[in-house]
Design a protein that fits this description.
three-stranded mixed beta sheet; 2 domains; alpha/beta; elongated; single chain; Rossmann fold
Length: 254
């Protein structure tokens, strides 16, 4: 969806992949050292997109600690201004024009003042809130417009698999895959700390298709797509998942 949005409107995408331990500072800048050992700051993709007037994509914001997203991008979204850890200031168009009455654009940039380009846009992607992981608080509700993308239908599953694996799937196979995905989502809703990493997202469906293109067998492709995250689960959770895979094979995954 973000790729399509960017393509239609002529944007370049600057993507940040969010993770559980990510701090507010890491969303805007990253500390580094130069060849002399001096501390330097590098702008994050979010800040680069803001200055260049491109599309910032924050992927998986549901993984961020509660409050991190609002604390970081709240002012950038509502006021189009932001203060960075190195002293750099991003300012909105009106503020920039007021400063330009007294300083040249070059002087402002030398003073670490940059304009947030009027064309700058942000898209955040996330999984829906669920019991035990309600990341969508009141602050975020006021910052963004929300678009819900429902889980893929059987027909969409079939099309995704066919496009990536270059091989058509039978109705029985798709029904078995859809059933497995629904069971995994149910487990993740009940115990997100255990089963969230193995839910069947659209990205994982694409992985299944890619594995199937090389392996030829849909059941083996599903097992390969889940093999890496399963290794890090407790033994009882691994047993539950292997039971689900066995049941899915019985329903149509050969």
């Amino acid at each position: 969806l973000t790729r399509r949005f960017a393509g239609l409107l002529g944007y370049r995408r600057f993507t940040t992949f969010c993770f559980q331990d990510m701090t507010a500072r890491e969303l805007t800048a990253r500390r580094s050292t130069n060849e002399r050992g001096d501390t330097t700051w590098q702008w994050s993709p979010l800040v680069e997109a803001a200055v260049e007037g491109e599309l910032a994509v924050l992927d998986g914001v549901h993984r961020l600690p509660v409050g991190t997203l609002a604390a970081t991008v709240g002012r950038l979204v509502s006021d189009r201004e932001l203060d960075l850890p190195d002293g750099t200031r991003l300012v909105c168009w009106d503020h920039w024009q007021a400063l330009r009455l007294h300083y040249s654009a070059e002087e402002l940039r030398e003073g670490k003042v940059h304009l947030v380009h009027p064309s700058f846009r942000i898209i955040c992607t996330a999984e829906p809130p669920a019991l035990g992981r309600n990341w969508l608080d009141e602050e975020l509700l006021t910052l963004f417009h929300f678009v819900s993308a429902p889980p893929p239908t059987d027909a969409e599953y079939a099309e995704l698999l066919s496009q990536t694996s270059k091989s058509p799937s039978t109705e029985k196979q798709i029904r078995g895959l859809h059933s497995l995905a629904a069971r995994l989502r149910g487990l993740a809703d009940e115990e997100p700390h255990l089963y969230q990493p193995i839910t069947f997202s659209t990205r994982r469906i694409l992985q299944v298709g890619q594995y199937r293109a090389s392996q030829g067998d849909l059941g083996e492709a599903v097992a390969m797509a889940l093999s890496a995250p399963i290794r890090f689960l407790p033994q009882n959770a691994q047993d539950v998942l292997r039971g689900l895979l066995a049941g899915a094979e019985a329903q149509g995954l050969p």
